[in-house]
Amino acid sequence: NAGVTQTPKFQVLKTGQSMTLQCAQDMNHNSMYWYRQDPGMGLRLIYYSASEGTTDKGEVPNGYNVSRLNKREFSLRLESAAPSQTSVYFCASSGQGVNTGELFFGEGSRLTVL
Amino acid sequence: GEDVEQSLFLSVREGDSSVINCTYTDSSSTYLYWYKQEPGAGLQLLTYIFSNMDMKQDQRLTVLLNKKDKHLSLRIADTQTGDSAIYFCAVPGRGGSYIPTFGRGTSLIVHP
Question: Mean pLDDT for chain A?
Answer without folding.
Answer: 92
